[in-house]
């Protein structure tokens, strides 16, 4: 394609070339107009002129390279019809995802890189600006069809173990791994994470542990097998529970682990440790006090706990597309919000670690495996499902890379309990093996 | 003294023996009455029957050993007059300290152990119970003489370097030390803390650091000397600053460190790192947003910071005696309160460590040294001053041992900055020496 860019720094939109031949949706291609280019210019301006080429339905190419000089942006955003452009302007956070999944918007180039660029350009938890308000008034919010959305959740934990087996590690751990060595395999890093959690909890032989939200059971099995503890593990997904029970039986651990269908509110008994990895994201902020009460009721006086969760630097809602189609009700908390679990109950925070870049690395592995398995996924699921998962994985990767999301591991005990680690040195001692404290 | 205790578990107050001879305050000793014993009984009950003997002004001994069975409590609390008892009942949190300092209440036995027992017995941030309200109504709040209090601040940072030299380490570090080895000397543990802070900040040769609240300059000097950074260090105490400047000059570091009289609001310039050790306690919660703004304005894009502060598990005020006589305006925050510094400014929390037991250990050292130097202190200061410091040190020790107070080190960067430590392993690598990362 011939490059004929004007590169004045003040001239952020450059009409490059018009070409025909776009026949998507079986319609005759309508020409894009000056007003379309102007609206797109406003979007690009509000995003700080990202290094991006936008190609409209009639082939018109618009380059947001004003501040980038003569560089040719490697990423191309294809917008296949005017309605898609208008919806993008009216409510980008929900409509980008919807139109990406339906194929009316396409990204050519590195999807995660594109999304990271957008995340970094957007102010955190920004209120809508005057321009956005005017555009929304002029164009109206479109496509927020909650009813149809409810029929189109692309994700749940009962989607089928076979699907997750295609791209998770062998132990089926669907949470952030711990790459002590950044070049470790995903398998090694998930195993390292399971053990890191056990060491942070200072598990001792013979102790009892309750796990809220146990997924496919990898942590429960790791704890029982390597730390000789008994575990009660709760989960709402029957398919995951069946898999976990089967695995525990194969490992000969069925007498050490009880897998229970239920959520944290069903926890009964007294335990030396409470652990929850990747569950808090699904607990509403309003239920934090109740969760804290459950923890306070089930822990012994010298009990301690660990919560591993996606979080935020500042309180703000989930991306609305993810919230609608991927994780309905999900809400990663900021630390001030998270303290609402601990402070009212007399818990003492001992240690908080942010593993954001480890989650980015984890998702890189998942995404690579997902793409390698794309043909197998396509054989079972429709193209919209595949695109939704691609967007979700790339978007999550971008969110952790850009700092839009964090990964917190929070270790706590009861206030005033002096049976707490003296320092962290033992966590990082050379030659650590399972169960050796 | 003859022991003649009734030890029925339900009978928590035991009149042991009456003896005469108490002639304190040069007055004829008034006999204690049933009502005094009853009021004292209510106090002991509200404290959960602590392992304690109380001896009244006429020698009458009352033993709060109900739930302790036949044990003879080793700690004796002497109350020298009825007015002292009444004031203790009316407003124990302020009046215990006032009467301890004036000698009208005395503790025989381990003062820190006594105070820890009281801290553990008192519910955290409790609202006054009905009984306390009635007692206060009956007796009235006494002795809250703010005007006289203002003339009797027993502590400030300009009290004289010689006083602090008696019981601090050689580098005059008046904050929590870090005992990688619990048996380390105070000198070694303070040096280890200074270096731990530098390693958490990942200081690199040639970088610039701003320090808010630099005390006698030990951290600024450690950073400049061992990490080859330039430091701007702020402090309000002229005597501390003069000492710090003198020491820097002796070390040949006067061109690397600028000591400035001023607080955090006066910080100007751009820095690679912001550090503050033991200053936040003196910043009001209402000023946290302003502090966060200063940090946001003075840090480079890849800048990072560390705040080391006394904190709380749950928001609550300072002990009122400490607040009035020792640290006016002091307020250790809970983590939810502390997030008010970071969340509005786009900071990302990377690491929080609670070093509560290290502060207890630090104060054990200070207190031992203080007691060893008691004669020297008494030669300069009046007995009330000595008692106030003894109470302050023992009370602080008790607060950290009992979990009433915490010590948080919080490491942060700007949101989305990926120049952050990959893991904590390097912090704990064997054979760490200054500046080796």
The SS-based structural class of chain A is alpha/beta
Instruction: Note the main sheet of chain A.
Output: 7 strands, mixed
CATH architecture of the largest domain in chain A: 3-Layer(aba) Sandwich
The strands making up the biggest β-sheet of chain A line up spatially as: 8-7-6-9-10-12-11
Helix tally of chain A equals 16
Number of strands of chain A: 12
- Low-confidence segments of chain A: 1-27, 139-151
CATH superfamily heading of the largest domain in chain A = Vaccinia Virus protein VP39
Number of domains of chain A: 2
What is the overall silhouette of chain A? elongated
Report the CATH C-level class of the largest domain in chain A: Alpha Beta
Work out the helicity level of chain A. 25-40%
Q: Rounded to an integer, what's the Rg of chain A over CA atoms? A: 24 Å
Quaternary state reads homodimer
Strand content of chain A: 15-25%
What's the mean pLDDT score of chain A? 85
